[in-house]
Write a sequence for this structure.
């Protein structure tokens, strides 16, 4: 009988350890990838400007609310819809106040220095989209 109890408790410990390991793996899986981490850094940076108008989940800095919170945005919108918004929000709302981050069309008062340059590079755009896709 003692033997059985011992075996059972060994099994139980093993089970718990396994469960712990699994939980850890799941935790790691939900962590941000390098690309989306870079995207989050951009989104909360002055350079990205997003926090002027949007609340960002798990970010403690000052944030504006001229636009909707980006919390859960990947549940509300498809990847394509998010991409269209970030590239050029005028495609959805011609009167939007959100800057077109990946378009040089129809802009006025652009400093000649920045003519034909998008606000974000292709790589930065991909990083931001990778981060936004994690906001479920
Ligand atoms: C000057 C304000 C402003 C800035 C800066 C801004 N946005 Fe927006 N954004 C808005 C507004 C307002 C909306 C709501 C729709 C509209 O009116 O265009 C919006 C909508 C969105 C949406 C769709 C959200 C939803 O739930 O429908 C996404 C995604 C988004 N913005 C991402 C960004 C990202 C990423 C940045 C930074 C790179 C950014 N925005 C910067 C104002 C802004």
């Amino acid at each position: 009988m003692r033997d059985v109890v011992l075996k059972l408790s060994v099994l139980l410990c093993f089970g718990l350890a396994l469960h712990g390991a699994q939980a850890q793996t799941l935790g790691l899986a939900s962590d941000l990838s390098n690309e989306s981490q870079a995207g989050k850094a951009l989104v909360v940076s002055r350079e990205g400007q997003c926090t002027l108008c949007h609340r960002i989940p798990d970010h403690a800095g000052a944030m504006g609310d001229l636009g909707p919170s980006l919390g859960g945005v990947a549940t509300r919108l498809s990847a394509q819809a998010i991409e269209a918004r970030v590239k050029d929000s005028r495609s959805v709302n011609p009167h939007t106040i959100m800057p077109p981050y990946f378009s040089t069309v129809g802009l006025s008062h652009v400093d000649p220095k920045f003519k034909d340059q998008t606000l974000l590079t292709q790589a930065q755009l991909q990083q931001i989209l990778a981060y936004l896709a994690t906001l479920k």
Notes: Helices lie at 2-30, 34-43, 50-53, 73-76, 79-87, 122-132. The longest helix spans residues 2-30. The chain is about 50% helix and 0% strand. The radius of gyration is 22 Å.
